[in-house]
Amino acid sequence: MIAPVLVRELTIAANLHPRGQHHLSSTSGLIRTGHYLYLVADDEHHLGVMDVRELASGDLRLHRIVPGELPHDKGDRKKRKPDMESIALLPAAQSPCWPHGALLVLGSGSRPDRQRAVVTPLDVEGAIDGEATVIDLHALYAPLRGEFADLNIEGAFVLGDRLRLLQRANTGRDSRNACIDFSLQEIVDWLTQAGTSTPPAARVHPITLPTFNGVPLGLTDGAALDNGEWIFSAVAEDTADSFNDGACAACALGWVSADGELRRLEWIDGAPKVEGIALAPDGLLWMVTDADDPERASVLLSAAV
Length: 305
Hints:
The chain is built from 3 helices and 22 strands. By secondary structure, it is mainly beta. It has a 4-stranded antiparallel β-sheet, with no helix packed on it. The chain has a 4-stranded antiparallel β-sheet with strand order 2-3-4-5, with no helix packed on it. It is globular. The N and C termini lie close together (about 10 Å). The mean pLDDT is about 90.
């Protein structure tokens, strides 16, 4: 069993938060580039930004990626949020539009109004540099809706020449997990309008995971390893569909071989609802949680893996 270490709560100055909160309470998706950690604040229209040189003392900053404001009421906000759930780093070499790479943030696709992506260019040090571009994902997600009864894209990462999206299982409508591969170059060409047609998935590979007390583990994020393998986070959340939240019964990390076979699974002590992971240069794995409660702060954890 993996014992996570609390790095910090995801606090923010209240005057910088759109509803005056002192923290982020719902985070999903995490990536590191340069000196910066970027996390998806899936209950907001923003990314959370942390300078890794100030992890112990500095507050998060928010960077807006979608215009407009969300309602204060939790239920109304849930209905109207874009549900950005995953974030990937697009390499600099893929497009002259992003000489130092870009962040790709993806909506879950769990409802018709949750099918947007945002592309944000970076500078040479990994800081955001330029305006965000909003992309309509309806055409990209349409074939996946034919594949999955309850589409819910919760993770994204680049591995070699592929962009990989992770479909998350739930207890009710669709209990299947899957890794969905796209050609990275075709995706970049489509995002930059260098390509004229919507790229098809190159492969849809099922990922079979165990259940915990009858609740299926569902993929929440993934990260590439140096040897062609990849690591993922998964939670057993007792919910009947991709819209409603449920109690988190268990959390795990898994390792997948280069040919797509699950070769190791480790439970995380305390069952934190981990929804974003990123590897640090020293080999530690950083993880962010989703508190699912406006009164509670999400946290940044670390673990030696």
